[in-house]
Automatic annotation (TrEMBL):
Topology term for the membrane: Peripheral membrane protein
Gene Ontology biological-process entries: daunorubicin transport; doxorubicin transport
Coiled-coil ranges (or none): none
Domain of life: Bacteria
Species this chain originates from: Caldibacillus thermoamylovorans
Localization in the cell: Cell membrane
Keyword tags: ATP-binding, Nucleotide-binding, Transport
Name the UniProt record assigns to this protein: Putative ABC transporter ATP-binding protein YfiL
Pfam family, one: ABC_tran
GO cellular component: plasma membrane
InterPro entries registered for this protein in UniProt: AAA+_ATPase, ABC_transporter-like_ATP-bd, ABC_transporter-like_CS, DrrA, DrrA1/2-like_C, P-loop_NTPase
GO molecular function: ATP binding; ATP hydrolysis activity
Gene: yfiL
Family membership: Belongs to the ABC transporter superfamily. Drug exporter-1 (DrugE1) (TC 3.A.1.105) family.
Length: 310
């Protein structure tokens, strides 16, 4: 359905995106992951024809949208990272306004507003001002705006940032349902790996403007098939312990989060004794050491050297 070929964008001396190649099949949910500054938003802006690439092409059904941007605008819905609503209007008035921009009117617009409000679970709040909505409700209405013109494809740029777990789950289930029941094609970016695990058929990992890995969840996890992740829980994390772990030649990655230290090591290495020794040496109280199979988060850390939220 959509093919991205050698796509690049340069701003003066900054190469934001460099030689990106991707594709989306009709009816897929595809994840685009990357740490902050990886080039995801720039890529999305080029795909949605908001900015022109420095080089490369984006083809929709084998027609260039760089040369003919209106081709994609008719069939694409975009849910931006920032809320894009008029807070002094009601939910229904926002949908009326954006629906008219899409070219909808009369009975068609009224029917679509009713259908969309039902889809996003806001029918009973249609007459309420958006400024009275919670963050989660605003996010849902933002999605509703993108769905109004019945797009074939939707781009969702971190649609669950800063909302409560209930609203987040509602949005994820809504995306899954629209994909399953209507065959909606989705390009989804997120800072939450569990969302991508739940939703996506395939995943692209982006860093420093490049696509550095792609595949299904299982294919990506196989990158670390010869390695294990060890989770070390301690009473208090000390800088000295992190230093000695990083200095160990058998340890390939060290990541600190909350009171846990995650390290990636070759499967054949048994580092329990060494970890215990390092804890004693740095006077760190160990709570537990756990070995687990690599996760998508581990693969991301291995490839980028950073956690997804960094």
């Amino acid at each position: 359905m959509l093919q991205i070929m050698d796509l690049s964008k340069k701003y003066k001396n900054v190469q934001a995106v460099s030689g990106v190649n991707m594709y989306l099949e009709k009816g897929e949910i595809v994840g685009l992951l990357g740490p902050n500054g990886a080039g995801k938003s720039t890529t999305i802006s080029m795909l949605s024809s908001l900015i022109t690439p420095s080089s490369g092409d984006v083809r929709l059904h084998n027609e260039s949208i760089v040369k003919q941007p209106e081709k994609i605008r008719h069939i694409l819905g975009v849910v931006p990272q920032e809320i894009a609503l008029y807070t002094d209007l009601t939910a229904e008035e926002n949908l009326q306004f954006f629906g008219k921009i899409y070219g909808l009117q009369g009975t068609t617009l009224k029917l679509r507003i009713n259908e969309v409000l039902e889809q996003i679970g806001l029918t009973d709040r249609r007459k309420d001002l958006v400024k009275t909505f919670s963050g989660g409700m605003k996010r849902r209405l933002n999605i509703g705006v993108a769905l109004l013109h019945t797009p074939e494809m939707i781009i969702m740029d971190e649609p669950t940032v800063g909302i409560d777990p209930q609203s987040r789950n509602y949005i994820l289930e809504t995306v899954k349902r629209l994909n399953r029941e209507q065959g909606l094609t989705v390009l989804y970016t997120s800072h939450y790996m569990e969302e991508v695990e739940f939703l996506c058929d395939r995943i692209y990992i982006m860093d420093q403007g490049h696509i550095i890995a792609s595949g299904t969840k299982e294919e990506l996890k196989n990158i670390l098939s010869s390695e294990n992740t060890i989770i070390i829980k301690v009473e208090r994390i000390k800088d000295e312990l992190i230093r000695v772990l990083k200095a160990d030649p058998h340890i390939r990655q060290v990541q600190v989060q909350d009171q846990k230290i995650s390290i990636i090591v070759p499967k054949e290495e048994n580092l329990f004794q060494a970890i215990t020794h390092y804890a004693e040496e740095t006077k760190t109280k160990l709570i537990s050491i756990e070995v687990k199979a690599p996760t998508l988060e581990d693969v991301f850390l291995h490839l980028t050297g950073r956690a997804l939220r960094d």
